[in-house]
Amino acid sequence: MTESEHLRVVIVGAGRMGQGIALAFLAAGRDVTLADVKETDEDRTGYQRAAERTVLDRLAERRAPVPGRAPRLTVCGRATAAAHLARADVVFEAVPEVLEIKRSVLSWVDAAAADRAVIASTTSTFLVTDLAELVGDGSRVVNAHWLNPAELMPLVEISRSERTDPGQVSRLTGLLTEIGKVPVVCGPTAGYIVPRLQVLVMNEAARMVEEGVASAADIDRAVRAGFGPRFSVLGPLEFIDWGGGDTLYYASRYLAAELGDRFRAPAVVEENMADRRRGLQDGAGFYRYAPEDVPAYRAGREREFEELLRLRESALRAGAPFPERPAAPPDHG
Question: What positions does the domain 3-hydroxyacyl-CoA dehydrogenase NAD binding occupy (predicted)?
Answer without folding.
Answer: 9-186
